[in-house]
Amino acid sequence: MPYGYLGQNQPNQTVSNSGVFSITDVAELQSQGKLGGSLELIEEQTASTSATLDFTNLGNYDVHFMTFNNFQADTTTSAGVYGRLSNNGGSSYISTSNYQRAFFRISTAGATGEIRSTTETEFDSFFSIDSDYPSSQGYAYFYNLLNSSKYSFVTFQSWNSVTPWTYFGGFVLPVAETHNALRIFPSVNNFLTGTAKLYGVKQI
Amino acid sequence: MSALRLINETKATSVSSLTINNIFSADFDIYQLTIGNDNTTNNVMKLRLVNSSGSAISSSSYDYANLELNASTTFGEDKNTNVTEFRGLYEALEGNYAIVWLFNPYSSSSYSFMLQQSQSFYTTAYPRGGKGIGVLKTTASTTGINIFQTGSAFSYLNVRTYGLRVDNG
């Protein structure tokens, strides 16, 4: 049964979607470790003329959520914003041709395109950046990064301001091992701005 | 505190069908599901909503449309109207992972709408992603979900349900 969220007559809350617990529910949920919001911020990183954003603490989750906000390049050269995983806590990042991708893109001008390959050396790409264009934004879900017996999966959607396009689709690094660090980086040059927030999605 | 509220987590192994009931209520309009699974072969995960009597709705009232995003072959479309379940969530030996959003499943005055995005390793050779929509064209209130497949069993299935809290500000 769902817990007895109290929706009515609470200040600043709608009747439905209220998510207010009774005192009894609070006590019970807290005892089970289930109390609180379900997106748990692990780390926020803001780029400032930097070439990499490394997340070396992934907590203990099987689903992670990342937001990309206000990403901009420091030059007028277009750069893809890539991702790589590490199996040694961030001492190095995997760059073998094992990354696979499949995503679709649609431009505001009406163009469409299938982007697919099985021999990438990184997650290529979440979106692009170029200082001639506004900033780019997006989000991604990562699955099984810390599971040593599973491949690592990604789904994402983004607003790529270069053109502009929307991208949506996913990536897989088909290597069953623990991936305990994540790097976000531009294909060339540096980030001028950008904030990436990494969340764990609560599990029991 | 984030606006997502964990309502339920259910895990199962070696099942071809899993019903999770009493997860939708008047407390939320919008729900997020995270679904992870492995399977012994390629297959298609199917999703039905469960009525207030606890029975999966199997009438021909589901419409869906899904884009298949394949890493090593041309993308495809999977779409149907007036079928008996939502499809478009894939599964395979190396797993499938999906985020599913459900809108108004508990409402007795609105259709139930679905958004999903998934990523699987559909064969031993390449990934297949999915991006899709769906609607259950009935205004009857539903209280849960039924996940199932035909012809094989899930090796592993993990489903978490979250409600999305909304404040007036």
Order of helices and strands of chain B: EEEEEEEEEEEE
Query: What's the main sheet of chain A like?
Result: 8 strands, antiparallel
Q: Which stretches of chain B are poorly predicted, pLDDT < 50 over at least 5 residues? A: none
- How many strands in all of chain B? 12
CATH architecture of the largest domain in chain A: Sandwich
Query: How many discrete domains of chain B?
Result: 1
Q: Which quaternary structure do these chains form?
A: heterodimer
Helix and strand composition category of chain A = mainly beta
Give me the side-by-side strand order of the main sheet of chain B: 1-12-3-8-9-10-5-6
Q: How far is the N terminus from the C terminus of chain A?
A: 16 Å
Helices of chain A, by number, come to 1
In round numbers, the mean pLDDT of chain A is 89
Q: Report the structural category of chain B.
A: mainly beta
> Which spans of chain A have pLDDT < 50 for at least 5 consecutive residues?
7-15
Largest sheet of chain B: 8 strands, antiparallel
Query: CATH top level of the largest domain in chain A?
Result: Mainly Beta
Structural notes for this entry:
The complex is a heterodimer of chains A (204) and B (169). Chain A is mainly beta and 204 residues long. Chain A is built from one helix and twelve strands; from the N terminus they run H-E-E-E-E-E-E-E-E-E-E-E-E. Chain A has two domains: 1-36, no CATH class; 39-201, Jelly Rolls, CATH 2.60.120. In chain A, the strands form two sheets. An eight-stranded antiparallel sheet of chain A has the order 1-12-3-8-9-10-5-6, with no helix packed on it. In chain A, strands 2-11-4-7 form a four-stranded antiparallel sheet, with no helix packed on it. In chain A, a hairpin with a 4-residue loop joins strand 9 and strand 10 (165-173). Chain A starts with 22 loop residues before the first helix and ends with a strand. Mean pLDDT of chain A is 89; it is low at 7-15. Chain B has 169 residues and is mainly beta. Chain B has one domain. Chain B has no helices and twelve strands. Chain B has an eight-stranded antiparallel sheet, with no helix packed on it. Chain B has a four-stranded antiparallel sheet with strand order 2-11-4-7, with no helix packed on it. At the A-B interface, strand 5, strand 6, strand 9 and strand 10 of A face strand 1, strand 3, strand 5, strand 8 and strand 9 of B.
